[in-house]
Amino acid sequence: xxxxxxxxxxxxxxxxxxxxxxxxxxxxxxxxxxxxxxxxxxxxxxxxxxxxxxxxxxxxxxxxxxxxxxxxxxxxxxxxxxxxxxxxxxxxxxxxxxxxxxxxxxxxxxxxxxxxxxxxxxxxxxxxxxxxxxxxxxxxxxxxxxxxxxxxxxxxxxxxxxxxxxxxxxxxxxxxxxxxxxxxxxxxxxxxxxxxxxxxxxxxxxxxxxxxxxxxxxxxxxxxxxxxxxxxxxxxxxxxxxxxxxxxxxxxxxxxxxxxxxxxxxxxxxxxxxxxxxxxxxxxxxxxxxxxxxxxxxxxxxxxxxxxxxxxxxxxxxxxxxxxxxxxxxxxxxxxxxxxxxxxxxxxxxxxxxxxxxxxxxxxxxxxxxxxxxxxxxxxxxxxxxxxxxxxxxxxxxxxxxxxxxxxxxxxxxxxxxxxxxxxxxxxxxxxxxxxxxxxxxxxxxxxxxxxxxxxxxxxxxxxxxxxxxxxxxxxxxxxxxxxxxxxxxxxxxxxxxxxxxxxxxxxxxxxxxxxxx
Length: 518
Ligand code: ADP
Ligand code: ZN
Fold this sequence. Notes:
Elements: E1 4-7, H1 14-19, E2 25-27, H2 28-36, H3 40-47, H4 49-64, E3 71-73, H5 82-88, E4 92-97, H6 100-110, H7 123-140, E5 143-146, H8 153-159, E6 168-172, E7 179-183, E8 202-207, H9 208-214, E9 223-227, H10 236-248, E10 256-261, H11 263-275, E11 281-286, H12 289-295, E12 300-303, E13 312-315, E14 320-323, H13 333-350, H14 352-359, H15 367-383, H16 398-407, H17 415-429, H18 433-445, H19 458-465, E15 479-481, E16 489-491, H20 496-504, H21 508-517
Parallel strand pairs: 1-3, 1-4, 2-3, 4-5, 5-6, 7-14, 8-9, 8-10, 10-11, 11-14
Antiparallel strand pairs: 6-7, 12-13, 15-16
Helix pairs in contact: 2-4, 3-4, 4-5, 10-11, 12-13, 13-14, 13-15, 13-17, 16-17, 16-19, 17-18, 17-20, 19-20
The site of zinc ion has 5 residues, from helix 17.
């Protein structure tokens, strides 16, 4: 039996991908064309779609069962067949994922002879079909690769070596570097998985808690550097300690840094890896919810200054991320709650199935929810690695969150707790009344406060929004608005009065006062 099946919409590059593997792979459409002696579009034209689907189903099942090939590339519509979906259960399914725009472009480029593809004639119909198939591909996929990387299939298959069958691989594609992201319950805690392609000695950087709990689940490193837990370790002084330890242990550019822990460890270790000898590879092994859904991906590394958080850093993509939701079982409840805010933020940005799941009460620690959050983040980062455009959408809730953190000296709230409040304020700015109410319910259900402590100075929070790091040249303070799930947008300007209302109403006392006035 072939071990791997390639699925994806027309134009995703399944045929191209299969060709990178030579004899190991077979393309269903090519086999059908060879057998029938005519092109797919001619079968469509002569016999109609139903007749084609019948042949397609039969050939697909036959090739999936064939031991001669490692990889079978399916036709775009084959997954509509129940029997094909059934047969796919025994295979590792690789989805070459496209946006409708990319797919349309690609279909038009590789078929100069339009209408070559029978289902790619009308753009509106094409987009509808894309939208209808997307959830089907999503639900079947064990491995998700952006279509732009169809030629990287050999590297993707190599990255799968030794990966337990239930785990997922998401391929992160960036202008600077690609890397595999592994998501699976038990990957670290039980399977002790390590990507075979990442050879080299390893230096472990961790904090006392994550190290005590999970360091022994990784193969012994030749050196281990442990920092004190907490944000106060994310400083240049701690970076110097880590650099010095790396040098003392003789770390070279052939070696790997392994960051085991939450966002603090990931940011600090990533920064040290970015700068030590001008850059060594590092692997993120995130153990907090916040790190598993957000900070471990995208290559933002850095430390804080006394003046401001994350003010010194570098972009440096990890060589891999290993994400095991089971490691969250030991996380303190408040840390878990703080991560939930980022999960809900991601659900609002991504919309679609992820939002549906969260809205229906899915646990933020569910591996499927985490994998969907990761995919949403990777997709946005891929389009804008250096944070000059689309990536700023990930800052939903964060302009107000950062202002709350600044105004309270970073002492009163965890980042995620501030994000929860920031989301509520920014949903108000978005005019999304009902959505704001629903999000407040969800945040509260996950143990987060939905009002600002009475002692916090609202005026100071409002003033602090003007200090946002994303604000350029005294220009407008950037906000992300989200009038409905899946439709985040950068706001041009927000009226000061609206901002005052949105932040002011977070404080229960004020809200009560306002209500009694009205
Ligand atoms: P964040 O990821 O939110 O930036 P930190 O890196 O500061 O958070 O981690 C929050 C706290 O949780 C720290 O005290 C850290 O040592 C601890 N921690 C991290 N991962 C785990 C875990 N899986 N189980 C228990 N404690 C953990
Ligand atoms: Zn955040």
